[in-house]
Amino acid sequence: MSLDLPVLQTGSFYFIKDGVGNFILEDKTKRGLTVKETSIDEKLHVTADKGMIHDMDGIGHWVAIRWYFPKTQFNLVKISEYAEAMEKKYTELRELTCPDDSD
């Protein structure tokens, strides 16, 4: 699915895009991952496109690629909170695993 939609907000690790009936939060770290299913995200309780990644032991894990927030239930401020939490998590992970890398 092509998501060439207007970008409302961007961070190092996310985009928030303006869909027709939804705001779409897209995880930049999952770009290129094939969507295998669309289902309800367990944490955010909205529809999400999900893909499969495999760890070093070959065990597959479902991960969300993008989330669809209905405009009737969510505003941009709330989605920005979710996006900034993702940004913080990935920044901390990067600092932990790559302490010498800097932007």
Q: Strand order across the biggest sheet?
A: 1-2-3-6-5-4
Q: Low-confidence parts, pLDDT < 50 over ≥5 residues?
A: none
How many helices? The count is 1
The strand count comes to 6
The class by helix and strand makeup works out as: alpha+beta
Architecture overview:
There is one protein chain. By secondary structure, the protein is α+β, with helices and mostly antiparallel strands. It has one domain (7-97). Helices cover 21% and strands 37% of the residues. It has one helix at residues 76-97, and strands spanning 7-10, 14-18, 22-27, 37-40, 47-54, 60-70. Strand 1 (7-10) and strand 2 form a beta hairpin. The radius of gyration is 14 Å and the shape is globular. It starts with 6 loop residues before the first strand and ends in a 6-residue tail after the last helix.
Provide a short characterization of the protein structure.
The chain has 103 residues and is of the alpha+beta class. The chain has one helix at 76-97; strands spanning 7-10, 14-18, 22-27, 37-40, 47-54, 60-70.
Characteristics:
alpha+beta, 103 residues, six-stranded antiparallel beta sheet
List the helices and strands and how they pair.
Layout: E1 7-10, E2 14-18, E3 22-27, E4 37-40, E5 47-54, E6 60-70, H1 76-97
Antiparallel strand pairs: 1-2, 2-3, 3-6, 4-5, 5-6
